Amino acid sequence: MQRANERFVERLPLVLPHPAYAYLLTGLFCLIALGCRLLAEGFLPVGYPFVAFFPVVILSSFLFGVRPGIFATVLCGIISWYVFIPPRMEFALNPAVFLALCFYGLVAAVDIALIHFLQQANVNLALERERSRVLAENRELLFHELQHRVSNNLQVVAAMLALRTNHVDHPQARAALDDAAGRLALIGRISRTLYDPAEEGQDIQAFLTRLTADVLTASGRDDIRVSVEAPPGLTLQSHVAVPLAIIVAESVSNAIEHGLPDRGGSIAVTLQDSSGALSLRISDDGAGLSPGFDLGSGPSIGLKIATALAAQLKGHFALDHGPQGGVVARLDLPAGAL
C-alpha cells in the first residue's frame, strides 16, 4: 500500500489525455467547493469568503500542476468576490475588498509555489531512485560476471594442473599436483557458490549442505552418507565463508580418504551456537586416528591449512578420537566470528 502511494505521488502532476480535462476537472472542483460553502453558510460566522476554496487551489495544483492551480485561484477568487464578499452578487471594489483579494492571491500563490517545488524535488528523487536501481543492477551483473570469471579461471588452472600430472613420473610430485588441482577446483566451486552481491550473508545450513555434497561428489564415492545439522536462520558472511568452507572441505575429504578409504560409512557435520560462540564438529565412523598422531607435526598439508585458517578466524582446530570410534574434527570459533 505504501509503495502504491509512492508510485502515485511520483506520477504527479497527472498527465491527462487532453490538457482541457485538467481545467474541466478544476472547474468541477470549484463548483463543488461553492456548494459546500453555501451549505455551511448557516454554520460559519460572518466573513470567511475563501475558506472553502483554498483546498481546491491546493488539490488542483497537486493533481494537475501549476497552470490548473492558477486557473483554480482565479476562478475561486471571482466566485468568492461575487457571491460571498459584501455587497453580494456584484463585483464591488473598495480598499478592504482589494486587500482581502490580495491576501487571498498571496496565500494561493505560496501554496502553488510550494507544491510545485515539492513535486519537482519528488521528480528528481524518482529519477535518482531509478538511476540507483539501474546502477545496482549493473553492479550485480558485473559482480556475477567477475565471480563467474574467477571461478572459471580457477577451474582452468586446476584442469591444467590435472593434465600436467600425466607427464610427471615421480609419485610424490604427481600426488602434490593432484592435491593442488583438487584444492583449486574446490575453491573455484566455493567461489561460485558464494555469489552474494547484496552481502546479506548466506544461510549456513544450506551452504554446508551444498559444500559437503560437492566434496562427496568430487570424491567419486556413493557409499558414504553425509548429514548436516546447523541452527536455523544462522547466516554466513562472505569474509568468513571461504576459510570456513576450506576447513570443512578438508575435514570431510580427510574423513573420506583416511577414515573410510575402503568401506562405506557416515560423516556428520554439526554446528552449534552458544551465545554467539560457534562449535563445529565433523565426525566419522571410520578407522580413527593412528597411534601417536600429532596434528602439528603430521604430514597432511590440508590439516595444516585448516589449522592456519582456524587461527585466521581467531578460532581453534583440532582432531580428537570419536566417542564410538572414528575421528572428530573440531573447530571452535569465538563469539562474533561470523
UniProtKB/TrEMBL annotation:
One of its GO terms (molecular function) is ATP binding. It is a multi-pass membrane protein. Residues 145-337 form the Histidine kinase domain. It catalyses: ATP + protein L-histidine = ADP + protein N-phospho-L-histidine. Its main location: membrane. GO terms for cellular component: membrane. Keywords: ATP-binding, Kinase, Membrane, Nucleotide-binding, Phosphoprotein, Transferase, Transmembrane, Transmembrane helix, Two-component regulatory system. It is an enzyme of class 2 (transferase). SMART domains: HATPase_c. The keyword Membrane applies. Its EC number is 2.7.13.3. The chain crosses the membrane at residues 20-39, 46-63, 69-85, 97-118. It comes from the Bacteria. The keyword Kinase applies. It is found in: Membrane. InterPro entries: HATPase_C_sf (IPR036890), HATPase_dom (IPR003594), His_kinase_dom (IPR005467), KdpD_sf (IPR038318), KdpD_TM (IPR025201), Sig_transdc_His_kin_sub2_dim/P (IPR011495). PROSITE patterns: HIS_KIN (PS50109). One of its GO terms (biological process) is phosphorelay signal transduction system. This is histidine kinase.
